[in-house]
Amino acid sequence: MTPKKEEKRIRTRYAPSPTGPLHIGGVRTALFNYLFAKKNNGDFILRIEDTDKERSTKEYEQQLLKALEWFNLKWDEGPVLSDQKEIDFGSHYIGECAPYRQSERGEVYKKYLQKLLDENNAYYCFCTKEEVEAQKQYLMSIGESPIYLGKCRSLTKEQAEELKKQGKDCVIRFRTSENIKIKFNDLIRGDIEINSATMGDFVIAKDLDTPLYNFTCAVDDAEMQISHVIRGEDHISNTPKQILLLKALGFDEPKYAHLPLILNEQRKKLSKRDGKTSVDEYINGGYLPEASINFIALLGWNPGDNREIFSLEELIKEFSLEKIQKAGAVFNIEKLDWINGLYLRKKSIKELTNLCIPFLSDFIEKTSIETFKIKQTGEEISVEWLERIIVLYQERLKKLSEITEMIDLFFVNDLNYPKELIKWKEMDDSQIIQSLETSLMVLSQIEDFSAENIQAQLFKEAEKMENKGNLLWPLRVALTGKKNSAPPFQIAEVLGKEKTIQRIKKAIKLIEHE
RNA sequence: GGCCCUAUCGUCUAACGGUUAGGACAUCAGAUUUUCAAUCUGGUAAUCAGGGUUCGAUUCCCUGUAGGGUCACCA
After folding, report:
1. Is A358 left (phi over 0), alpha (psi -120 to 50) or beta?
2. What is the pLDDT of residues A344-367, one digit of tens each?
3. Residue whose C-alpha is closest to residue A237's, from A195, A203, A279
4. pLDDT tens-digit map of A438-465
């Protein structure tokens, strides 16, 4: 029996730093890592890169994990999200490479940092920030790569110890070999080659207890046995540094895939401060997670044919790195609105109603599992009644948040609308009053107050007129106070006979008193 | 400025040397409708420029141009 050589297990990671609200670019990076891992029966790891203690917060971390959860991107390893949807900030993790917060991995980094120092691959540098900055400015001014020139690289260990004893500030730099070519094969872009001369000796830690990004990232990718590093294009320039670090530490390098950036309207990299694209906007704005995921997947990836609508499962099935775009993609919300509307229309009315309820909190409050109270009128209403309203607006909805102003008319005592709105085309006041009186007469006589019957009865009258709108438009406005709405018959049915008549009378008064 | 990456309709993209350069969103027009939406039909709209290679370039190569990224004791 010859042991089959096992393919290396696919392991991807999303490694955000909790220093701001999660934005769309981060979600896409997470999504592609997730899809690639799942497609290959691999593991998707979530690692929190919170080495910057000043800028990282627990709040952002919590927000981040909750957002991933909302998008249904489940990680196989990483911090635990308990049933209460609260993050466990103790030392509870799933996975064998715990801890998954860099702030808790100090010992690991210290060990490797010491190794680099011992083997002379890293050294203490006592240059001041100002010195280094001035040097860079000078190099740039003469058209060269702004790098650290290596003033302290030949300091002996004894000299370094002596300076440290004197209390001089220092950092730890990696000793980059001069003038070597660092090559790597990017799964999306092909071969990329960078000369070490353009990098210089970069800082890897402030001190043994305070390692910095490139170092921690390289160490963790190795320690956590990440097979594929899939991240934004803005990390291309970090890649050769991390490769050098990995080599010096004796690790194999993972495969790299650098995603094109998601751009804002100005064609610039989406920034964490760009509030319009933060994930909160999605949740609060009434976008569905599955619609958002569908949309985000299409930003820089396509299935190779004309299909555009995909569930997460379908995306896993179809996903491949080869179909990823090389150029950046402008984030354009109109298409998301379209996709979201599509998903909204596919929802069952029960689901849709549940999704809408949070957006109606100004008007109604829950009184039991199945009932609500209208705040303004004090009336008790049932979920079924809400469903009857919402179904009228299902195909008009692009985002859940729009429901609020579409159906407020059902929850208020008085409608506020300008008199002019009632006027249909060339009608004058007396014609409007006549129109409304006709509606009033017809509706008062109706016993069976169903939309079908209301429509049938009203149409009998409407057809006598030169234009149905002469009857129906003033009625619509009287009932809704809006120029756009569901058909007035349906509105009347849900409103009920009494309120319907009341509203028509009010409209007549409005015209008369002007 | 150095280094790196990129370049097809307004936007997201398809066409792995040969197509009337396809689709979707948006937009415009029409149908339907009392309005809006939804739906259906149709239209406008793109290969950054210049050189090569080739019988033939959106596609390969070079140069230019434009855009982006990065050059932190941030990640």
Report:
1. alpha
2. 999 999 999 999 999 999 999 999
3. A195
4. 999 999 999 999 999 999 999 999 888 8
Whether residue A53 is contained in a domain is answered as yes
Task: Quote the mean pLDDT of chain A.
Answer: 93
Q: What is the pLDDT of residue A253?
A: 97
Distance from residue A237's CA to nucleotide B10's C1', rounded to whole Å: 32
* Contact, A173 CB vs strand B, < 7 Å: no
Helix (H, G, I), strand (E, B) or coil at A324: strand
Same domain, A138 and A169: yes
Does residue A223 contact residue A216 with C-beta atoms inside 8 Å? no
Give distance CA A178 / C1' B2 (Å): 16
In the annotation, is A5 catalytic? Answer: no
In tens, the pLDDT along A84-104 reads: 566 667 668 999 999 999 999
Dist CA A509 CA A500 (whole Å)? 15
**Which pLDDT score is estimated for A1?**
41
A110 & A241 share domain: yes
- Give strand B nucleotides closer than 7 A to any protein Cβ: 1-8, 10-15, 22-26, 33-39, 67-75
**Any atom of strand B under 7 A from CB of A184?**
no
Domain holding A126, by residue range, is: 106-253
- Give CA–CA dist A61/A360, Å, rounded: 29
Kindly state whether residues A357 and A430 are assigned to the same domain.
no
- Through-space separation of residue A398 CA and nucleotide B74 C1' in angstroms: 38
Distances (CA, A) of A34 to A98, A125, A201: 19, 40, 34
Identify whether residues A123 and A226 lie together within a single domain. Answer: yes
Contact between residue A455 and residue A491 where contact means Cβ atoms under 8 Å apart: no
Predicted local confidence at residue A91, as pLDDT: 67
Query: Any idea which nucleotide's C1' is nearest the CA of A169?
Result: B73
> For A351-387, b where at least 16 C-beta lie within 10 A, e where not — what string?
ebbebbbebbeebbeeeeeeebbbeeeeeebebeebb
